[in-house]
Automatic annotation (TrEMBL):
Organism (species): Chamaesiphon minutus (strain ATCC 27169 / PCC 6605)
Protein name: Large ribosomal subunit protein bL12
InterPro entries per the UniProt record, alphabetical: Ribosomal_bL12, Ribosomal_bL12_C, Ribosomal_bL12_C/ClpS-like, Ribosomal_bL12_oligo, Ribosomal_bL12_oligo_N_sf
Sample GO molecular function, one term: mRNA binding
Reported function: Forms part of the ribosomal stalk which helps the ribosome interact with GTP-bound translation factors. Is thus essential for accurate translation.
Domain named Large ribosomal subunit protein bL12 C-terminal: residues: 60-128
The keyword Ribonucleoprotein appears for this protein: yes
Residue stretches making up the Large ribosomal subunit protein bL12 oligomerization domain: 5-51
GO cellular component: a single term: cytosolic large ribosomal subunit
Lineage start: Bacteria, Bacillati, Cyanobacteriota, Cyanophyceae, Gomontiellales
Length: 128
């Protein structure tokens, strides 16, 4: 910093809040600028932040949305039991009450593996 800017900075530090507000107003009028933060920039940054949050998702839900064919119900039921460790009645209730979460909060690799197994057995599956 130059000596002139150091001097101005030291003088600014001694201003009261009211004096600082008056100084801002005078600078805005003298130079035709605004000290307010641009709203458009903050609004434009929000969708970008939301997109980044979606990309960083690490936990997934495996959702059984239905059966590709009703004749595949037993095969899907067996896979649900193997993946979840549920008993026969609980697995049957899950398969019959689609759409239903089969697994929740699992890593991407485990979710994709479960999806693959369920689809091969005849289920319609989505990762959320």
């Amino acid at each position: 910093m130059s000596a002139a800017t150091d001097t101005i900075l030291e003088q600014l530090k001694t201003l009261s809040l009211l004096e600082a507000a008056e100084l801002v107003k005078q600078i805005e009028e003298a130079f035709g600028v605004s000290a307010a933060a641009p709203v458009g920039v903050a609004a434009a940054a929000a969708p970008a932040a939301a997109a980044e949050a979606v990309e960083e998702k690490t936990d997934f839900n495996v959702v059984l949305e239905g059966l590709a064919d009703e004749s595949k119900k037993i095969a899907v039921l067996k896979v649900v039991r193997a993946i979840t460790g549920l008993g026969l009645k609980e697995a049957k209730d899950l398969v019959e009450s689609t759409p239903k979460d089969v697994l929740t909060g699992v890593p991407k690799a485990a979710a994709e593996d479960a999806k693959k197994q369920l689809e091969e057995a005849g289920g319609k599956v989505a990762l959320k």
